[in-house]
Fold this protein.
Amino acid sequence: MTDQPSIVRVRDILAAEEPGSCVQVQGWVRTRRTSKAGLTFVEVNDGSSLANLQVVAEQALPNYEAISKLGTGASVEVRGEIVSSPAAGQAMELRAADIRVVGDSPDDYPLQKKRHSFEYLRTIAHLRARTNTFGAVARVRNEVSRCIHEYFQTRGYLYVHSPIITAIDAEGAGEMFQVTALDLENPPRRDGHVDYGRDLFEDRAYLAVSGQLEAEIMATAVGGVYTFAPTFRAENSNTFRHLSEFWMIEPEIAWCDLDRLQDIAEDFIKCIFASVLDRCPEDMRFFNDRIDSTAIETLESIVGSRFVRISYTEAVEILEKAVEANFQFPVSWGMDLQSEHERYLTEQTFRKPVIVTNYPRENKAFYMRVNDDGKTVAAMDVLVPRIGEIIGGSQREERYDRLREQMAARGMDPEAYWWYLDLRRYGTVPHAGFGLGLERTVQFITGMANIRDVIPFPRAPGLLSF
RNA sequence: UCCGGCGUAGCUCAGUCGGUAGAGCGGGCGGCUGUUAACCGCUUGGUCGCAGGUUCGAGUCCUGCCGCCGGAGCCA
């Protein structure tokens, strides 16, 4: 036994420590059970794992009185010896030689030793991170993020930073938040309109809805890049899978066509799922037990199988034959696939992820490459059960004239995209990319029903606390 | 934004045909226990979302508003 035991995380104690070692633990009290026989059990959690460490305090401790009354949520520093636990429930426990109550927690601590609704927990987002579920979500989200960087870094992609503030109203993909330094109570005016020429950027500015166009700039210089950044949508969407501020990963790859893009997207997703299964087994077991009883099985089966790949046209043919589905929106070639159609494909027809490609040109963005049939573009959506679209991507239109046509057909001003067009004038190259929604990925993996519960501080219409 | 549902104790909910409000958990007190969602007893706790209306009487019925949840659209 040394005088200064090293600070050890609960996760490491439960995984590796041997009886006899002396450690110091720092964490928060999850629950306390006091026995009148002069023994108090304190469950300490430090966020490193789902499981708590059982700390055993004996009456001989000088501050035993305070320890026996410790409230849920209190912060403590415990020094002691790891011993084998004589009782069921845990292999190891910490026999306390010293417990320092760093911050007590009064009896109005909002988190009780029972199940709370996620809805209620959202109203105390500053404390919900201390619950089992949100701790587990935080660790899985971290692993997904870590794995994404590893995936691209080990394959030679550059992590690039696209701007958050942008002038481009990117193809009307959802409403944008405007950014201004003007006094909104009294903006400068000219000819009856707000004079944005006198704003800080001397032009209208927005929060980015995508980093893709800038990523294309970088990809056509260095080959393969990816962004990993917050994205902003001002759309008044109030659903279980939309946020006003969310994180998106957008790889962009030069010399890449749609076939290879599909290979990358599939490999990428499987890699993330496999990594979470491998490195967060305890948390995944929790989600499987408490949130979605098929969580682990779903991930394992996806990792071990091939994604289905069908064209939009084939998808429409399948859906048109599915009379028993009794769709609210009838299916015909040329229409957008509705949620019910996507779910039919992923949950009924194939029961696994489906990549749908080559959508009608009119339904998709101007930058997608026009196919030889002239009617479709080289787009792909990766659809998964329950969530729907988790990835949206395409091969980009690299031919200058075709891109001009696409823009003209949508009434877009080429002047505003002069630099984007320049990429096609000088050394153009086939390239492709996609966007992966981080929150939707975490949602799919964990089985969490609402996207607001897989991001620590959700922003959605009417939701800006914390 | 549209459609539907729900707002009752700190939390999760019940409340029948309209007759002045209940349980479990939590908190407090006591008992018991190498305990572990501990257990047992007692106890505490409410402007029934807000504002109107109908009625002898409204948690309950009606209208408006606010909030939340679910579905749809938009998308990742």
The two ends of chain A are 44 Å apart (CA to CA). The first strand of chain A starts at residue 6 and ends at 7. Residues 320 and 331 of chain A are 6 Å apart (CA to CA).
